[in-house]
Every structure is written in structure tokens, then in C-alpha cells.
Design goal:
alpha/beta, Rossmann fold, 2 domains, seven-stranded mixed beta sheet, six-stranded mixed beta sheet
């Protein structure tokens, strides 16, 4: 007879609770997911999930995030966004995503990534290629590929490992390209200033994406009215100096927060949603523009840096009120395009060249579809991405039924 002590019983209950979060049938459809893999390490108590959504176009591509609120449904939604993002970008990757459920400030992120890598190793890199995401940077990605024993297991690696780190700003650069092209095509028609230098921009989130889109837009002459992070918002109607605020980017404590950059008025974190501006750029977490917040938005254009930043009902209401949203899987594809260049052994220069070319072309295609058909840019982009995936599925004999 085996007797379990109270700690063992508690640990077992935690495992059951973690596994019980997954109900694949609740989000299964004809596109995917192809695999949902739950993993657990009893020593570190690392709980993780890998969702490989669709590999018709190539191995599933998607970052690893660490958050205390990660759920399999969230990871699935992100994996599905990657399916469409890679398809729209025209690169030979499918969609995938992974998440580790933990407080990133109270664990050894490297240790958790290593344990996660051991568990998902059979799927990498043949079916899954990882990358940085929320609370995971090049240091953790280095640990991931070294644990797997294959440099092709992830992109966003440090330069010394042949990588093109996301910290170079590939995602933010691509967003800047998408925003500029949109402004050029429909700026005046949706009520934006005629001169780009007169645009007032608010950016939510000040990390890998928010910092670089802020630098890009400031360099182009736009006025950055507000920046924020987990701990608060800094606002100045005359504009912030991004270079001076930069030392507060990637904050991991309230003391380091951008709200303490002493350039303006300190506001609560979520007050950033209601600041009067021309362009709002959400670069933090998903679902920030939702049923309860959409009416606070005063921008005419929203460019999504965060994945799944806007809920469908909120987007519908905003569109009906004349607000245009450039969707995540178009606007923030710079990171995955750069990842593809890294994957095939290209250089940083080649990455930025390809990002500019592809995102400019795709933005023009999507915005033209919005202008001609009066559909939301997301609807137009989704039609294009789905058609490409469906074609690939049919060629592989996996067509929708």
C-alpha cells in the first residue's frame, strides 16, 4: 500500500486542475488545432501548454509566453492568430504558440524554459519552432535551443547563436511601416491630420514592441502623447521624449516604470485607453479593447501591436463609429518575418528589408480591400490568409470538410 503525504496530494490536485483547463473540443474547428500538448514538471511545478494549430504551410511558428494567467484557450487563440499571420505574410510557416503558467517575477525563467523545452522536444523543430513572447527574451530562447540541442528549434536567438533578436525591434519596425502606409492611403479620409508630423499617438505597453514603434514614429515626426506599462501611464499633451523615456523600457518593477520618467502627468495604467489622440497603438496584452472599454477610445486609427488586442464586438462598434483597426496579424508580422529570415540563415539587414517590403505590400492590399468593399481591414486580411491556408490544406489532402 502506497501512502501519499499531504504535500503529494496537494501536488496531484494541482496537476489535475492544470490538466482540467483543457477542453480541446471547445475550440476545435476545421482549421485546427492539430495538437494540444499539456506538460508539467513536478520538481519546479512548471505548467505549460503547446498548441500547434495548423501546419499546412509549414512547421507551426509561435512564441513562448510566461504569465500567471496563461490558459490553453488563450494560447490557442494566439496560435490561430499565428496561422493567419504567417499566411498573410507569405512565409512557409504554420501557426503555433506556447505558454507557461507562472509569475515571471517569482521564478527562474531560464529553469522553467529548460523544463518546458525537455517536454516539447519531440515536436521541435519538425512541427514547432519557438520564439520570444511576453516575458521571454533572447536569454530564455538561448536556453530553449541549447536544451533541445538544435538551433533551428527557435528564432529570436542571441546574435552569437546566429539569431536576429526581437530586441532589435523587428516587430515595432513592421508596425511603423503598416501605420505609415495606412496613413498615406486613408489618413485624411478618416479624420487624421494631413501632415504626419501633426499626428498624436498613444502607445500602450513599453517593451519589445512599444519601445520600437515609439522610436520609429518619433523619428518620423509624430508626437508621442503617452506611454505606459504594468505600473502606470505617463502623459504629456506636448509630447514625450522617447529617448529620455527609453531607460524605463522593459520595466520589471514599479520603481523602474515609465511612469517615473518625469516628463509629464502620471495617470493610472488603464487611463491610457481614454486619452484623446489620433492613433492608438496597443502593445501590451490581449483583449484590452473590449465591451467595457471601446467607448473610451478617442482615436481614429488603431494599429494592433498586441495579439488579440480587440474583441470582435468592440471592433464592430468602433468600425460603425468610424474607427479603423489595422489587425494584429497584419501590423505586427515584422517579428515573424524577421524570424523567417533568421530561420533560413539571412542577415539583420535582409530581415528589415523583407519586413518593409512584405508589410507595405500587404497593408496596401488590405487597406485597398477596405476602401473598395467597405469591410473591416481584419475581414479583408482574414479572407486572404484563409484562402492561402485552405489551398495548402487541399494540396496536402487536409481540406476542410
Amino acid at each position: 500500500m502506497v501512502v501519499m503525504d499531504s504535500k503529494a496530494v496537494l501536488s496531484t490536485e494541482r496537476v489535475i486542475q492544470a490538466l482540467d483547463q483543457v477542453n480541446v473540443s471547445s475550440f476545435l474547428d476545421s482549421w485546427g488545432p492539430e495538437e494540444v500538448i499539456q506538460v508539467y514538471d513536478p520538481i519546479t511545478q512548471m505548467q505549460g501548454v503547446l498548441v500547434i494549430d495548423n501546419t499546412a504551410l509549414g512547421p507551426g511558428k509561435g512564441g513562448i509566453r510566461i504569465s500567471s494567467t496563461v490558459t490553453p484557450l488563450e494560447v490557442f487563440r494566439l496560435a490561430r492568430a499565428m496561422t493567419w499571420k504567417c499566411s498573410l505574410a507569405g512565409i512557409p510557416f504554420g501557426g503555433a504558440k506556447s505558454g507557461i503558467r507562472a509569475d515571471p517575477y517569482n521564478i527562474s525563467k531560464t529553469r522553467f524554459i529548460q523544463e518546458f523545452a525537455k517536454k516539447v522536444a519531440p515536436s521541435t523543430p519538425s512541427r514547432y519552432i519557438a520564439a520570444p513572447d511576453m516575458n521571454v527574451g533572447e536569454k530564455e530562447i538561448a536556453a530553449f535551443v541549447e536544451t533541445i540541442g538544435d538551433l533551428q528549434a527557435a528564432t529570436g536567438k542571441p546574435s552569437k547563436l546566429g539569431g536576429i533578436p526581437h530586441e532589435l525591434g523587428t516587430t515595432g519596425f513592421g508596425m511603423g511601416v503598416a501605420l505609415e502606409k495606412t496613413f498615406e492611403m486613408i489618413g485624411e479620409s478618416i479624420g487624421l491630420p494631413s501632415d504626419f508630423a501633426d499626428t498624436r499617438v498613444v502607445i500602450q505597453g513599453f517593451g519589445n514592441v512599444g519601445l520600437w514603434i515609439a522610436k520609429y514614429l518619433e523619428n518620423k515626426g509624430a508626437k508621442i502623447l503617452a506611454l505606459n506599462d504594468y505600473w502606470g501611464t505617463i502623459y504629456n499633451e506636448k509630447g514625450l521624449n522617447v529617448a529620455k523615456a527609453e531607460k524605463h523600457a522593459y520595466a520589471t518593477s514599479e520603481q523602474a516604470s515609465v511612469k517615473n520618467c518625469k516628463q509629464g502627468t502620471v495617470l493610472p495604467r488603464d487611463a491610457i485607453l481614454g486619452i484623446d489622440c489620433d492613433i492608438f497603438v496597443p502593445c501590451a496584452v490581449g483583449d484590452v479593447i473590449n465591451e467595457g472599454t471601446w467607448h473610451s477610445i478617442k482615436a481614429k486609427l488603431i494599429v494592433e501591436g498586441a495579439n488579440n488586442a480587440t474583441r470582435p464586438i468592440a471592433e464592430k462598434e468602433l468600425f460603425e463609429n468610424g474607427v479603423i483597426i489595422i489587425p494584429d496579424f497584419l501590423a505586427n508580422a515584422g517579428g515573424v518575418i524577421g524570424s523567417y529570415v533568421e530561420y533560413k540563415g539571412g542577415t539583420e539587414e535582409e530581415a528589415f528589408t523583407m519586413i518593409e517590403s512584405k508589410i507595405k505590400k500587404n497593408t496596401e492590399l488590405v487597406v485597398r480591400g477596405y476602401m473598395d468593399r467597405k469591410l473591416t481591414p481584419r475581414q479583408v486580411a482574414l479572407e486572404i490568409a484563409q484562402a492561402r491556408v485552405l489551398d495548402a490544406m487541399e494540396k496536402k489532402g487536409k481540406g476542410r470538410h
